[in-house]
Each structure stands twice: as structure tokens, then as C-alpha cells.
Amino acid sequence: MTQKSPETLNQFAAQKLESIAQRGLTRHLIDTDRTDAIHLRRNGRDYLSFCCNDYLNLARHPDVQAASATAAHAYGAGAGSSRLVTGNHSLLAQLERALADFKQTEDCVVFGSGYLANLGIIPTLVGPGDLVIADELSHACLLAGARISGAKELIFKHNDLEHLAELLSKHRGDHPNCLIVTDGVFSMDGDRAPVTALAALAEQHGAWLMTDDAHGLGTLNDGKGSAIENGVRANIPLQMGTLSKAAGSYGGYLCCSKQVADLIRNRARTLIYSTGLPPATVGASLKALEIIASDAERTRKPLENARLFCRLLNLPEAQSPIVPLILGAPENALRAAAALEKKGILVSAIRPPTVPEGTARLRLTFTAEHTAHDIETLADIIRTEQLI
Ligand SMILES: *Cc1c(COP(=O)(O)O)cnc(C)c1O
């Protein structure tokens, strides 16, 4: 007798889950309500958070919340359709103009999310026969975009310019177009890409450079992001990013030339076949960007706070608001996170496959409104509980 298909489907899911559990990699969604800039509530208990990407605490900023509500009242709860049909409410053009001005590019295209942006941008620019070369620690959605483009994929060792140059010398000539992709700030390690040198290499080999500035916007160089190195703006033709981190809202973007932006509007499938962002979300992003552009003091705090923490524990100086404490096995990271949780502090334990095998870690993120006292408390617990 053949099995009923729902039964085999459920068996399939159960077996997969069992194998995930055996490796200590089960993930759970836990109800979590953020109660103010840096605190949240989980299972009836309040925690101090060092795991939100809301680096400037703008998600709950009263002006941002008010702008979001105003936009919902004026333009409705949803966009109603793709931007190419009737979903292109006028806040979107305002946001694109504001982002292009802030990043000093000709144009900008806003997508539904950062993930959608990368899935849309990369296959628009390269396809079968072309070449994509990615830093090995690039965010999952850059690699997913490269994969679905159908271009040949090569990986260079993390921030290793020599390895990248070698790959370019060997392979560039065999492909009509070549795209180099990397995070500007690496999401799980907090270090930065050497953007000036990458831009020079790309130019030398006739390749296009694309950076993902998800964690740089709002947090580096008075908020302008990771494209500026030692005060000088690197020549990066494709600057992608997200509004879901320091901007405290949601949505992805690509800052680029007018020609590239027009091509994206014509060809990027995740823009064309997905509904435009809700007006409330775009209204929030616009206000957040205004705050980022005008309040340099606030944009400097997350990195200053990360650096204070590193000094307290004699760690290498932070390059961004993200500080990893690498602990090896998944159980180590879970145990350390649980010890902090007991003391009322929430941090994220990051395990494979999000990070390479053997590098499970605590990923700490510092924000503008953490106080020196908050950071000292965290460092004290890590020291006394001997978590590192
Ligand atoms: C969070 C993140 C994304 C995805 O952005 P969303 O807007 O949340 O989809 C892309 N790239 C990097 C490096 C990220 O950290």
C-alpha cells in the first residue's frame, strides 16, 4: 500500500528535525517584545539586549514612530501592488532621492528588503557565462543572488586581496562580465572590507564591485557607511544596503548610477514581481535617514560603545558595533548565552550554518543608547563567569 503523502511529508520533516537536533542546532522562534531602546521582554521577564541590529535605537524613536503613523494615515496600510503597477506611492521616490544624496550617488532603487535586493540586483547584472567572485564570509543573500544568477561562482579567502587578485588574473579573461561582491561590514565578525584596495583591484581587472552596507549605514563615518575609508570615499559603483538595521525600519536599496538604476527597474525580478513597501515603513525610513544625516553624535555612539567593551576585556579594537566572542562548539555558545540570560542580559548565540563549523560564537551588538554602566555590567559578568 502506498503511503498517504501528508504522512511522508511529516515523516520527512520529523527526520530532518531529528538530525538538526542531534547536532545541537535546533532553532526556536520566541515571542520577544522590545519595550524601550535597549530592553525587551521575553517569557514575562525583562532583559537588557545586546543583540538587536537597531544600532541607533531609531525603531522606537518617537519622531520615527510618528512619521510611520502619519504615512499610514495618508497613504494606507499597504502599497496595493508592485511598484511597476500602482504600488509606487510618492514616499518611495523621496526615499530614493534621500538615499542617493546621502551616499552621493546619482540614483537609488528601493526594494522590499535587503535580501530581496541582493536576489534582484545580482542576476540583473550577471548571468550564465559571466563570473561572480565573493568574499567567503559574504552574507547568505549575496551568495544566494550569485547562485541564482547562473554565473560562475568563485570564492576568495576572507579579506584576502592577494587571493582575489590571483583569481581575477586566472579567470577574468574567460568571462564577458565579472562582479566582485562583499559585505562592507561583515555581519557575524564585525570587521570591515578593505574597500579602497578592492575598488582598485576591480578597476584594474575590469570588474564591477558591489558592497553590502547593511551594518555600515548609520554606524560608520558619521552614518555614511563603509564606502569611506580613512576619510576617503572609495569608488564603488554598486552600494547595496538595508533600512532594517541602523535605520530601524525595513527595506533594501541599491545606490548606483542612473543607467544601472533604470536597468534594475526594468529587469530585477524581486522588484517587479513583489509588492511595494508599505507607506508606514517608507515614512519611518525617511525620518530615520533625516536623523542619521543630521545627528552625527548619535551615529558615533555604537562604535564608541563597542570599543569601550573591547577595552574592558582587552579584546582587539572593534571596527564596527558588532563584536564576536568566538567559542568553538555550538554548546559553548549556547551555554554562555544561557549564563548571561540568567543575569538578565540577552545576546545571540550564533551557530553553523550561519557561521563556519567550529566558530560558534556570541555576537554582541552595541547601540547608541547603551550606557557605560550597561557595558561595564556586561563585561563584568563575562569576566566573572569566565565566559571567554
Ligand atoms: C541583514 C542583512 C541583509 C538582509 O537585509 P534585510 O533587509 O534584513 O533582508 C543583507 N546583508 C547583510 C550583510 C545583512 O546583515
Unique ligands:
pyridoxal-5'-phosphate
Order of strands in the sheet with the most strands?
Answer: 4-12-11-8-7-5-6
Query: Averaging pLDDT over every residue, what do you get?
Result: 96
Are there runs of 5+ residues with pLDDT below 50, and where? none
**Share of helix, binned:** 40-55%
Order of helices and strands: HEEEHHEHEHEHEHEEEEEHHHHEHEEEH
Shape: globular
What would you report as the Rg, rounded to the nearest angstrom?
Answer: 22 Å
Indicate the multimeric state. single chain
Distance between the termini: 56 Å
* Total beta strands: 16
The proportion of residues in beta strands is 15-25%
Fold and architecture overview:
- The chain is of the alpha/beta class and about 400 residues long.
- The chain has 13 helices and 16 strands.
- Strands 4-12-11-8-7-5-6 form a seven-stranded mixed beta sheet, with helices on both faces. A four-stranded mixed beta sheet has the order 1-2-3-14.
- A hairpin with a 4-residue loop joins strand 1 (about 35) and strand 2.
- Helix 3 packs parallel to helix 10 and helix 11 (about 295-310) runs parallel beside helix 13.
- The N and C termini lie far apart (about 55 Å).
